[in-house]
Write a structure and sequence with these properties.
Layout lengths: L15 H6 L5 H6 L14 H4 L6 H4 L1 E6 L2 H14 L3 E6 L6 H15 L3 E7 L7 H8 L4 E6 L9 H10 L1 H5 L6 E4 L3 E5 L14 E4 L2 E5 L3 H13 L3 E3 H4 L11 H10 L6 H4 L9 H7 L3 E3 L3 E4 L16 H11 L4 E5 L7 H12 L3 E7 L7 H9 L1 H5 L4 E5 L6 H4 L2 H6 L5 E4 L3 E4 L3 E5 L5 H5 L4 E6 L1 H14 L5 E3 L12 H9 L9
Parallel strand pairs: 2-3, 3-4, 7-15, 12-13, 13-14
Antiparallel strand pairs: 1-8, 1-10, 2-5, 4-9, 5-6, 6-8, 11-18, 12-16, 14-19, 16-17, 17-18
Amino acid sequence: MQNFNKTFKILSKILLLFTLSIYISNSTRLFASSTGIYSSYKSDLMLSDYLKDVKNKMQNKTGVYVLEQGIEAMLSRAWLTQHAQTTIDVQYFIFSTDNIGLIATNYLIEAAKRGVKVRVLVDDIMVEASGEDLLKIASHKNIEIKIYNPMANIGKNIFQKIINLSTDFHKLNQRMHNKTFTIDGKVTITGGRNVADEYFGYDHEYNFRDRDVLLVGGVVSKVQKSFNEFWENKLSVDIKDLLKNKKLDSDTPIFTKLHEYASNPKNFVPSVRNKINEIPLAIKEIQEQKKLQWIENVQYISDIPGKNNANKFLAGGGASTDKLISLLKNSKESVIIQTPYLITTKKTRKILKELVAKGVDIKILTNSLASTDNLEAFNGYQRDRQALLKTGIEVYEFKPNAKIRQKIMSEVMQKQLKKAPIFGLHAKSMVVDNKTSIIGTYNVDPRSANLNTENFVIIPSSKIAKEIKEGMIEEMKEENAWKISLDWNPDSLVDLKKRIRVKIRRIVPKSIL
């Protein structure tokens, strides 16, 4: 999850991925050919026009396409934004404000100018954009911005932050970790990716291996309903109410500046921008390959706003936790998991041990000390790593130079950088009994279990389960990960400074990790 303690980041970049989508080159055609709903931005057709042929399927089935590559995930959001007709609803834990964020924000504004109603809901704890900038963006008549559980950042001075920290520590720790991107209430993207360079392979120093899923029709109505529940909840506060005493400088037209920035060929290369117009060429191939799978009984699980009633300090569970435990306990043959943070409790280990005793084969891939971005979380994992291994499961730790990054990272970035960035795991996925896949935001840690709201999709498809599992197994191979044991782990391969830094984190209670 990008821990509570990580430096505050977020918002002005909601279409960041859209921007970068343009840096895609040949991958543009590749992704288009795997979905079947894409076409040129210059066309007058909108999303509903492209969905006409699948309108009947959308009533009782869900179109499912797994977004393994960051390039695909960016391109999908780009095209959907450009073709949105009525609404764009965005819910994220992190929205960064880097270079691409400026261009991305311009995309969002352009959609609003077309009359699309845009709602952006972001968690308070990682917001990086200034309150004034958020107010300026929200000044557009078609854009609304709300901040979830604003107790530690936006609109709070240092004294208010200290008071909240000392008087309501539990509520302060209840964060919104949900990630959804929904267009016209018909198509959505959800999964592990936040909105920042590193989630799409474009950071110069550190990138994540992550996973999203694109959904069409069917269960999307449940995603939309969940978003509306969060949006209307009292924990979500309008930026205009948070900063009602803030006066805007009318002499700084942010929309104009953003548009000028995005239109500058130095910032947004025209040849790359035009790649999206080639998508119609792939539509026939899309339909022939049938890469968009239509599946019945897809489920969307989300916690309620606030997660639980907070009657247990730093505990209490939630709907997402209950559902995952049920899926685990009902497994018969195998369970394979990817989680960036693996912080187990006695209860978790008891469940795993009982499953192994029943003959269930369990494998988990998580970050190594060398690949992790979160020392607090790794320390929590490190404390009980031996106890976890004694349950009989197999544990693999991701390598920072995993060869899989050559397949997943942007080709453009690989050519530009002299030194390859560190590669860390951020995907939160599980495959049960080779027939059910879970893709979402849930980490195997106490924070996801009890404090953060989480969401995920349950996909009952042997075909999709097989494809995801094959990828997971590949990422557990020697060139991508270390298999650890009771006698060996790769911690000693990391420099002494980082090993000391992670040990110091032991003072952080596991219950908030």
